[in-house]
Amino acid sequence: MMQKSEAGTADRILQTAIELMKDKGFKAVTIKEIAQSAQVSEMTIFRHFETKKRLLETAIEKHSIVTSFQNLFETQITWDLEKDLYLIASTYLDQMEANRSIFLISVQERTTMPELSHHVSHNPKKLKQFLAHYFQVMSEKKKAKIEDPDKQAISFLTFLFGYFSSLTFLGNQFITDSKEDFIQHCVQTYCRGIT
Where residue 119 falls among pLDDT bands split at 50, 70, 90? Predict the structure, then answer.
């Protein structure tokens, strides 16, 4: 079992590596550079992660949003469509914002490290499953008219991902509404379409 200070060291290494890789790209960043920035020895990095690739995979696993969404769907759903979709949308955008660096690395390295897509794509696939199940139950409860829960889940997540991507790549010149205003408008529009 990892000691508390070792866990703190590993987290510091991960955070440093993520920021450097986001700014420079995976291949351009060296273990030596990560070690210097994290104020640890190169041997410490190898002891914790063995390789630079494993370090990145660990960062992606650590920042998985699956657990928080599983908890949301198991404990926070009220079966009120508008409230639930607002909660789901807010949580999704908060999690994506918290993981912006991982997202940017995956976009930068999609051609040089196609296996990275496998790790990163786990999050949206699981989230789609959770949301499709939610829509299926809402349909069974006669609280929404949903013919294809999978397509409804993809549609809703595409709204959210589009907002996050636009904000990430185009910034405030393109997105002028606040996140809360966007979520409110998106959820209300979506609810009108399926109730």
Answer: low
Q: What is the pLDDT of residues 179-189, one digit of tens each?
A: 999 999 999 99
Give 96-156 as a DSSP string: HHHTHHHHHHHHHTTTT-HHHHHHHHHHHHHHHHHHHHHHHHHHHTTSS--S-HHHHHHHH
Taking alpha carbons only, the member of 124, 152, 133, 135 closest to residue 65 is 124
DSSP 8-state class, residue 77: -
**Among 127, 62, 121, 116, CA closest to 93:** 127
**Which amino acid is residue 135, in one-letter code?**
F
For Cα atoms 132, 135, 139, give the angle at the middle one, nearest 5 degrees: 140
* This prediction's pTM: 0.81
Measured between alpha carbons, how far is 145 from 194 in angstroms, rounded to an integer? 5
Q: How far is CA 5 from the centre of its chain?
A: 27
CATH classification for the domain delimited by 63-194, as one of 1.10.357, 2.40.128, 1.10.1740, 1.10.10? 1.10.357
Q: Left, alpha or beta for 39 (phi > 0: left; psi -120 to 50: alpha)?
A: left
Sequence spans of domains, the chain? 4-61, 63-194
Helix and strand totals (H; E) in the chain: 10, 0
